[in-house]
Amino acid sequence: MKEKDIKEIEDILGYTFTNKNLLIQAFTRSSEREKNNNRDSEILEFIGDTVINYVIIQMFNNNLFNADNYGLNSQYSEGELTELKSLIVENKNLAAKIDDFGLDRFLRSDNSKQIPSSFKSDLLESIVGAIAIDSHYEEKEIYEIVDYLLMPRAYIGSLKFNYYLKLKQWCKIRCTSSNKLKENVEEIKNDNNIQYKTTLRFGNYEVSAIDNSKIDSLFEASILAMKKITDNKDEITIKDFLVGLDQNNGWSYLQKIQKLGYCSNLSKEYKKNEDGTWKATYMVDGMRTLYTDTNKKNAGNICALICINSLIEPRFQMDDSILELLRKLNYKETA
């Protein structure tokens, strides 16, 4: 690699390597390792992947987690945090960043005429790995290069991300393999200005949004998508999450509903009466449900189903599917 190329790469990255060979190694594919003292980028990719994940989790910790005397919590579920992390570090995003910075033209590969997207995502990881090694894992340098190359704050700090999450959840429940969510990003050049048009196709819907950055165009399209779903009265309800509910697993489904944010506080209590029967008391957001049965488990299962029904039918009507399950437990409405 020529000295002027090394200098240009360092200028783009905003980092000057002490060991220039690490920079060269980061840009050397395995097919070209013989030309570089049998050194290629693979081990640096491994290190970079780990470092990126570490920095992202640190950013989550600083922005999305809350620590108190009881431990750690977050407004986002584990699944939502995984979705956000995947959005930041997925291969197509890493490859797009390499394109944005024009770093792919320095890649040393036998496939340099048509560089695959996977090569570009590997390159970003190897660059981060090389800087981690060169800086002796200096946290400031590592944090800054990941922040600079991936711009994770644009994702973490945006409330618009919630709309993207809701859309992904809607598609997971409502879409089939034939009409699942598809994203298409188109670059629009106007004079010296570049904008991005993101088109989302999902179910029977299609929306598009244009913005100055790819991530903002995606988030804006997600907002339009959720508005279209709402306008068509096609929102997800609690019932969408009750697939698989039977007469014996009501409590686990109440916990699932709680995780999804449809209720906050859950508790249950059992008391054996003098006549040998069992009284189950279930509480959902301050609403108490009681049921007595000769079988402790039966009493609890009936309570759980009644609680679920109260969340589905707040006007105290009985949902037909819940009523059918209650009948299997020999539920007596006057008990």
UniProtKB/TrEMBL annotation:
Transmembrane segments: none annotated. GO terms for molecular function: ribonuclease III activity. InterPro entries: RNase_III_dom, RNase_III_sf. CDD domains: RIBOc (cd00593). Residues 6-136 form the RNase III domain. SMART domains: RIBOc (SM00535). GO terms for biological process: RNA processing. Keywords: Hydrolase. It holds the Pfam family Ribonuclease_3. The keyword Hydrolase applies. PANTHER family: DICER-RELATED. This is Ribonuclease III family protein. It comes from Acholeplasma laidlawii.
